[in-house]
Amino acid sequence: MVNYDQKLLKVSLQTSHIMSEKVVLAFSGGLDTSISVSWLMKKHNLDVITATIDVGQDEDFDAIEKNLTR
């Protein structure tokens, strides 16, 4: 069973090829989004722009950036 997020991603990827070759990803720095960045770049040849927002939580943004550049 495909969940809503998977359907939304599929539609977004289909329209992104029509509209542009860029996608913005809300990036938490965790394993799921780290893998998603690589997958979108390699599998769909997209220019991935990541967005991480500091809302005052105790996050290590240096570690998040390091995960992104692996």
From TrEMBL:
EC number(s) reported in the record? 6.3.4.5
**Has keyword Nucleotide-binding?**
yes
Any single GO BP term: L-arginine biosynthetic process
Which keywords appear in this protein's UniProt record, sorted alphabetically? ATP-binding, Ligase, Nucleotide-binding
Does the record carry Transcription as a key word? no
Question: Which enzyme type, at the first EC level?
Answer: ligase
Q: Name one Pfam family in it.
A: Arginosuc_synth
Gene Ontology terms: cellular component? cytoplasm
Arginosuccinate synthase-like N-terminal domain boundaries: 22-67
Q: Tell me the GO molecular function terms.
A: argininosuccinate synthase activity; ATP binding
What's the protein name?
Argininosuccinate synthase (ArgG)
Native organism: uncultured marine thaumarchaeote KM3_100_D10
